[in-house]
Amino acid sequence: MDKGVFFANQTIQNACATQAVLNSLLNKRDEIEIGDELENLRSFVAGFDSEMAGETLLNSDMIRSVHNSFSAPKFIDSDQLPPPDLDDKDDGLFHFITYLNINNTVYELDGLKQYPIKHEKLNGPEEFYEVLPQVLQRRIDKYHGEIRFSLMAITNNKLEQYKQMGDEISAQQEVAKRETWKQENIFRRHDFPKLTVALLKNILKSMSDEEWEELLNLARQKSLARQAQLYKN
Q1: CA 125 to chain centre
Q2: Where does the record place the site Transition state stabilizer (predicted)?
């Protein structure tokens, strides 16, 4: 592995986003204050290979707790799911990976690969923002006709920025946005599909087929009416 590059494999299913964030943070300690616990974890796994480092990180009680606080009911649990394959084959859709500028080189850190992937060499930090779109486009081109991609970035704390600028309106909007995120995350941790199925089963017990069909038609009409209202607005 290249000197100065921290890389840990994803060794537990359904944890690729957490692994991508960890690979980002633990490579940017000079730019981001990551806190004592992550600093201690990084120091502890410094001599480990990438698979052992990933196993250690994702078995940390602190990381498990944070991951599970943002996840649906499928929690990190190495006893319930087999480990993901670590190889160079296509890892499919809906998988999180990290792109970073490390030592003026664009690196791709994919927890399901054996090693970091080195892309273009940069002449300086600012060139990263010019070169990265080309690297991403090559990645997208691998999936012919697929358009379901998302791009996220680790940025400065906007709330702190607005406070320093004295922009009270933007700061209040940011606080309100975070309250919305908090509520959304609370809902995300509940298994609403199972609740919905249980409710439907309970309703069906006391209804005939004709009554059920009538209820479905009523629901369809209400749904179409809501859609029409949305388009009208």
Answers
A1: 25
A2: 10
What are the residue numbers of the active site?
A: 16, 95
Q: How far apart are CA 16 and CA 14, in angstroms?
A: 6
Same domain? For 54 and 123 the reply is yes
148, part of any domain: no
Express the helix, strand and coil content of the chain in percent, nearest 5 each.
50, 5, 40
- 125 and 202 assigned to the same domain: no
Enclosing domain of residue 108: 15-141
pTM, full prediction? 0.69
> pLDDT for 4-41, tens place per residue?
899 999 988 778 888 999 999 999 988 888 999 999 99
Does 133 lie in the same domain as 53? yes
